[in-house]
Amino acid sequence: MSLLTRVVSQVGRTTGTATAPWPRVPLATAEMMLPELARVAEEMIDAIQRGIPEYARPLDDAYRVTVRRAVTHALEQFVERIANPATPREKTAMVFREIGRIEAAEGRNLEPLQTALRLGARVAWRSLCAKARDESVLDPDVLARVGEAIFLYLDELAGACAEGFTTARAEVAGELERRRRRLLSLLVADPPASPEAIAELARAAQWDLPRRVAVVALRHQGHDYVGPLPTLPPDVIVDTARDDPCLLVPDPDGPGRAQMIERGLRGWTGAIGPAVPLARASRSLRWARQALALAQRGIPAPAAAATGSVIRCTDHLATMVIFADEELARTLSAARLGPLQELRPGQRDMLAETLLSWLQNGGNAKAVARQLHVHPQTARYRLRQLQGLFGEALADPESRFELEIALRARRLPGAASTASANGAAGPNAVTARADHAVRNTIVTM
Predict the structure, then answer these.
(1) Looking at the structure, do residues 58 and 119 belong to the same domain, yes or no?
(2) Are residues 338 and 422 in the same domain?
(3) Looking at beta carbons, which pairs linking 439-444 to residues 24 or more positions away fall under 8 Å?
C-alpha cells in the first residue's frame, strides 16, 4: 500500500464533523511547517486567482494585498492550532466573518468564496503530501491527523464566512425594507411627496417606479394582532406596522397579478383599491379603507369581512358611491321611500325587498318571484301594493333610478330609523299620487 493510500484511509477513519475534537499532532510537525508558509501562501493565492475569475484582479494591488493577508492569516493560525489546539478561534472567525460580509457587499454569492477555500485546502494538502513523499518526514498516522485538521479548519472558515455573509445580507435587506416602508408613506400621503423626492427614495430602495398601482388596506383576523404576511411578490411594498396596515401593488392589472396578491393575503381581511396612476396612490388607499370599513359593518360583503377574503373595490363601486356620504344617502332614502313608512315594519321590509328586486329585474314579475322564492301570484300581489303606494313614480326612469339608490341606501345600519324620523319631510308629493283605497287595504292586512 502506497503512503498516500494509507494516509487517505487513515483520514477517512478519523474525520468527523466540524464539531469533532481537534486532532493532536506532534509539535515538531508545526515547526516543520513554519518555513514553508510563505511559499504555500503564494501557491494558494495563485491557484485562487487562476481558478476563480471573480478574484482575478491583476491591476488591483489593494485587493491582492487583502487576499494575501487573509491567506497568510489563515495559514499562520492553522499552524498555531497544530502546535496548540487550545488556541482561541475567535480571532480567525472574526477575520473570515468580515470576508463573508465583503462578499455580500460586493453582490456575490458564497460559491466563489467556498471554492477559494477548497482550492486553498487542496494546495496545502498537496504540499504536505509532497513533503511527506520526498523527505519522509511525516509518518502516515501524523499526516492523516494533519489532513483531518485541514478538513475541520476548512469547515470552521466556511462557517464563519457564511455567518458574516448572512448577517450582511440581512442588514442590507433590512435597510432596503426600511427605505421601502418610507417610500410607501410618501406615496400614500395626501398630498403626496414631490415626484423628485419619490424618485430619489425609489432608487435608494431599489424599486422601479410603475405607471399604475393599487393599494390594499389590511386588517388581520386577530384584530389586535398584526402578524407577518405570507410571501408576496418582491416588488410589493408592505408595511404592517402602520396604524393602518397596507401594501402597495405595482402594475395590479398584469396577468394573474390580482390572484397572486389574494393568495398572499390568506389569513388577512383586505380591500384592494382601484388601480390608479402612481401619483394618486393615496386615493386608492382611501377607497380601499372605505370598502374595508363598509365590509366590517356588513356592507357590501359581510362574508368577506368574516372569512379573511379580499374585497375588490372595483366590484362594489356603486355601493361605495352611495355610501360615500351616508347622511345624504339617508336623506335620499327618507325622501323617496316615504310611502313605506306608514306600513308595519314587517310589511315595510317585505315590500322594500320586492321593489328592489323588481327594479333590478326590469319589472319582470316572474323574475322577482324566482329571486325572492315566492309564488308568482304573491309577487304580483306585492307589486300591485307597490303600485298603489308609489303610483306614477314607478313609470318614471329618473324616479326608478333614485328609488333603487334609496333602497340600497336603506340597507345602511340606522337608515330605517332615520327615514322614519324624517318620513314626513319630503314624500308628500309621491304619497299624494297613491291610491288611498289600496293603501287602506294594505294597512289593515
Answers:
(1) yes
(2) yes
(3) 439/342, 439/388, 439/389, 442/343, 442/347, 442/385, 442/388, 442/389, 443/342, 443/343
